[in-house]
Design a protein that fits this description.
Length: 768
């Protein structure tokens, strides 16, 4: 704002040769007598407010995603309204609920057992409470949430800043009461003021400073010094704040790096909220609220941004792809659908797309290559790289000291031991700082980033700064740290194991082999080891150790000492049990071979895989008394190995065709899926599959319909049974038949009519 003796000229203006000011936004206020007016006139207020609201819309109604490390100019300047997905908010509430009858009875039984034996059975009045208090997260609409001061908490990338920008744009346009915005319960007249707390003047952000803003006088001066609001009289905002008609949006409490400064700012905002009629909304990740819960909790209702549901992911992709102006609306929808199907087809990838940030990373990777990396290690590595190099770099909390210049790979080498320390102690996803700091100290010394004397101090500083800046390791409150998703913890744990020398990496895998908590980690270890040419040997060595963990003593089992009938039965039972143990090792090893080692394995392992696959195939088919505990049998895996290695002989094919008539529906289904992997199949395979389309089990029918499409042989008989399957009683079979007809690419009148007829059925999952 102008000083006391100056003339204030607002708007987009230029100076003429005669000293006059011209421009479309020219607003002239002449302050005379050495003082500013006590307040603006109604006409001046209306003109300034109209201009200010327009500037808020121009300033905040744009988003740029290209800064995330991929230069897709189509996403460099996106209208916020076009891509904003309504976030799901929950509020923490304490409620009372009845204690379930079963728990009540169990508690009474425990009390009875603990009583004196001589007093058992005596009647005693039960004075235990019949209700209990629990804390729950209940959904709340944004309109309801803004009926009072609000603290919005969410993990990195959850959309906190975007939400505050959207609120600023919505209130600036006066659209908050629209049904698809906040609704009629929203305040009709609120002027939005958005302040980024991480960019306050240094005087308020220093650790050794005790200064805090007087928000009533500070905000008008602070905001009107920033473009594009530098032509707005500070007096206008002073009057709006004094009238209590503002919506004060305070973004990024967590981006104040110093803890003491962050607490001072939080306390001062709580004090201002207590005495002001203006509405305050704060945003922060959980780390930023640490130490200020008491002051903020007394004035602000704490809200939590929930993760995306699959439908939110689909809608978000649709909004982003709609920005591709070179495509028609139909092509935009097709692109979004293709991306979502690629994400949905891999459950681990769909689990990743749970925040706007992570969903955007997947879209940018899709745009970069036209596909998502098929190998998980590549996908997770690229996501980590973008989070460290780009997303973190956009946040103002800077690293200092020796950590300021480390690259993303070195960054991951520091995080990997922390992930392992968390994952290796029980089934947990976080750990206290006291456990992680010694691990980080050792990692920093290994990287040459600190001396023994300075390592502890540097580790504490790194952990503290990382929790405020990183999209990976996060502060969860209560001095505990964790990763935003179990997937990142598993990936970094795998990197740590794979980085160990031979044979240490094997020693870290084998004790946990086949434990469910470690399965994904071990597959990622194989993938990381097999990512480079030099990794083929070490990956093969690990796979051989897994494959040969148990060596069935076939010669012993078939020796003459088991020549009597009873011994034969015992022999068969032992042989059968050992076969299933071997099947478990084989299935895991081949999963690593197919999904994690793209450069292949050495000749010895290829031979072993083929030999085991053929042996298991015979074992499974002839074991009519196979287990009934629900374990998935590895028949499909064995067939896949033989096909991949070029070992699918006519004898193997005959065995598989015969297994389509097995009495066990699980074997028939696995066989049907296996036959779809043969490529150009002989006539006996097609005939067998055509017959299996009429199987009594719907799972077998679905697998058969899919395999007929995968084989790609569009004979009249095949097309006929697939058209017939469109009328199956099971929707999964109908969907499989429709997809297979699409794969075969035959468009006769009969097929088109059948597909059109299927569209009228209530089957939303395959109408596209």
């Amino acid at each position: 704002m102008a000083d006391e003796t100056s003339t204030h000229i607002g708007g987009n203006v230029n100076v003429t040769g005669g000293g006059d000011f011209v421009g479309r936004d020219k607003v002239t206020n002449i302050y005379q007598g050495g003082s500013t007016p006590a307040e603006l006139t109604p006409e001046q207020l209306a003109a300034v407010e109209s201009r200010y609201r327009a500037q808020v819309g121009e300033r905040y109604n744009r988003l740029g995603f290209a800064g995330l490390g991929i230069g897709d100019l189509r996403l460099s300047d996106v209208p916020l309204d076009d891509v904003f997905v309504r976030l799901t908010l929950t509020v923490e509430k304490i409620v009372r609920e009845p204690i379930p009858t079963e728990e009540w009875a169990q508690e009474r039984e425990r009390e009875e057992r603990s009583r004196n034996p001589f007093r058992r059975g005596e009647k005693k009045e039960d004075d235990r409470p019949q209700e209990r208090t629990i804390t729950v997260q209940e959904p709340i609409t944004l309109g309801e949430a803004l009926a009072q001061h609000a603290l919005i908490v969410g993990e990195p990338g959850a959309g906190k800043s975007t939400l505050l920008r959207w609120l600023a744009v919505t209130f600036a346009a006066g659209r908050q009461q629209e049904a698809d915005r906040l609704g009629p319960q929203a305040d009709a007249d609120r002027l939005p003021l958005l302040v980024e707390l991480g960019r306050l003047p240094e005087a308020y952000l220093q650790a050794n400073s005790r200064e805090t803003p007087n928000w009533k006088t500070f905000l008008p001066q602070h905001l009107t010094k920033q473009p594009p609001f530098d032509d707005i009289p500070a007096l206008f905002l002073e009057q709006a704040l004094a009238a209590g008609r503002c919506l004060l949006l305070c973004d990024g409490l967590d981006e104040i790096a110093d803890l003491s400064a962050r607490r001072r700012i939080a306390d001062s905002l709580a004090d201002y909220a207590r005495s002001s009629a203006n509405r305050l909304v704060l945003s922060s990740r959980p780390a930023g609220v640490n130490g200020s819960e008491a002051s903020l909790g007394a004035r602000f209702q704490r809200l939590t941004i929930q993760r995306f549901a699959p439908e939110d992911v689909r809608r978000f992709f649709g909004f982003l792809c709609a920005q591709y102006e070179e495509l028609t609306p139909a092509e935009q929808a097709k692109e979004a659908d293709a991306l979502f199907r690629a994400v949905e087809s891999a459950p681990k990838t769909l689990e990743l797309a749970t925040t706007p940030l992570l969903a955007t990373l997947l879209l940018l990777l899709w745009n970069e290559n036209g596909y998502l990396p098929e190998r998980w290690v590549e996908l997770y590595e690229r996501c980590c790289q973008m989070l460290i190099e780009s997303w973190e770099a956009q946040h103002d909390v800077a690293y200092t000291g020796v950590l300021a210049e480390i690259g993303w790979e070195r960054h991951l080498r520091l995080l990997a031991p922390l992930a392992y320390a968390i994952h290796n102690t029980g089934q947990r996803t976080d750990a206290p700082a006291r456990e992680l700091i010694p691990v980080l100290v050792q990692a920093m010394q290994n990287e040459g980033l600190a001396t023994p004397a300075s390592a502890t101090l540097e580790a504490e500083k790194f952990l503290r700064t990382l929790s405020l800046r990183s999209g990976l390791l996060q502060f969860l409150g209560g001095d505990r740290y964790g990763f935003p998703h179990l997937t990142f913890q598993e990936y970094l744990t795998a990197r740590h194991i794979a980085a160990q020398p031979d044979p240490d990496y094997i020693d870290l895998v084998m004790p946990h082999l086949h434990k469910a908590w470690w399965r994904e980690v071990h597959l990622l270890v194989i993938g990381h080891l097999g990512s480079g040419i030099e990794g083929v040997e070490v990956a093969s060595k690990l796979l051989r150790m897994i494959l040969y963990r148990y060596r069935p003593p076939w010669r012993l089992l078939r020796s003459k000492r088991f020549g009597n009938p009873l011994a034969v039965r015992v022999t068969w039972q032992l042989e059968r049990r050992l076969a299933w143990v071997l099947a478990r090792e084989f299935t895991f090893a081949t999963t690593g071979f197919f999904d994690c080692a793209p450069l292949g394995v050495d000749a010895e392992l290829r031979s072993s895989l083929a030999h085991n696959a053929q042996g298991l195939l015979w074992q499974i088919v002839r074991d009519t008394g196979r287990r009934e505990d629900g374990d998935e049998m590895p028949l499909q895996t064995a067939a896949r190995v033989l096909v991949q290695l070029g070992q699918a002989s006519s004898e193997v094919v005959s065995v598989l065709v015969g297994a389509l008539g097995d009495s066990d529906s699980g074997v028939r289904e696995a066989t049907a899926r296996s036959l779809g992997q043969l490529g150009q199949a002989p006539g006996q395979v097609l005939s067998a599959l055509v017959g299996a389309v009429g199987d009594s089990d719907s799972g077998v029918r679905e697998a058969t319909a899919r395999s007929l499409g995968q084989l790609g042989q569009a004979s009249g008989e095949v097309l006929s049974v697939l058209v017939g399957a469109l009328g199956d009683s099971d929707s999964r079979v109908q969907e499989a038949a429709a997809r297979s007809l699409g794969q075969l690419g035959q468009a006769s009148g009969e097929i088109v009519s059948a597909l059109v007829g299927a569209l009228v059925m209530p089957l939303d999952n395959y109408k596209s």
